[in-house]
Amino acid sequence: xxxxxxxxxxxxxxxxxxxxxxxxxxxxxxxxxxxxxxxxxxxxxxxxxxxxxxxxxxxxxxxxxxxxxxxxxxxxxxxxxxxxxxxxxxxxxxxxxxxxxxxxxxxxxxxxxxxxx
Amino acid sequence: xxxxxxxxxxxxxxxxxxxxxxxxxxxxxxxxxxxxxxxxxxxxxxxxxxxxxxxxxxxxxxxxxxxxxxxxxxxxxxxxxxxxxxxxxxxxxxxxxxxxxxxxxxxxxxx
Lengths: 117, 111
Known about the structure:
Strand content of chain A: over 45%
Structural class of chain B: mainly beta
Radius of gyration of chain A: 14 Å
Shape of chain A: globular
Oligomer: heterodimer
Number of strands of chain B: 11
Largest sheet of chain A: 7 strands, mixed
Largest sheet of chain B: 6 strands, mixed
Number of helices of chain A: 0
Number of strands of chain A: 11
Shape of chain B: globular
C-alpha cells in the first residue's frame, strides 16, 4: 500500500512564477492537509480539504495561495507570483477520518522543497 | 491560542535513555502526538496518547502526560544511532481540523 505521494520533490522557481505542488493521499484516505515548514521551524498548518471541499483554510495566506482536492486526481497547492519568502518545505498529509471522537492519525508525504530564486 | 513548546536540542550517548519534553497550552486537546522526522524526509507518527491517560508504553518508547501541568514527554530507552532525528510534539487545534506542532527537538546520538 503506497504511502502519501508528493511531487515534485524539489521545485525551483524564479520570483513571479507559479508553483504547483501535487499530493496523492494514501489509498482509502479522503482527508488531505497541507503544512509548510520554514527552516528551523515546526510545521504550520495551511489548509484541510476533503474531496471537492475546503474544510479549513485558516492557515492559508490570503493572497496568491490556493488549494484544491478534485473528485479525481491529486490535491494541488498552487502558489502564484512566488516570492523568496515562499521558499520552504511543503508537506501533505492524509487521514482516513477527521479527529471527531478519535485520534487524527495523519500520514505525511516526503514533502516538496520549494526554492524561489 | 494554541501553542506547543519544545527544547531544541538533546545529545545522548548510544545505549542511554533520551527524554524529550514538550508543553502545550490547549487543555481541551483530547490526543497528543509524537512524530519523528529524519533528514530530508516527511514526518512519521511514532505514537499518540489519549488525554485521560498518564502513560503509554510501546516497546522502547514511553509517553508520560501530566495534564495538570500540560506537560508531555517522550522517553526512548536504549537509544540507538538510528534514533537521531527531529522529534515533534503535536496537539489537535481546537477545531479538530489540524495538528499544531512544536518547533521540534533535534536528538543527536553519539556512539
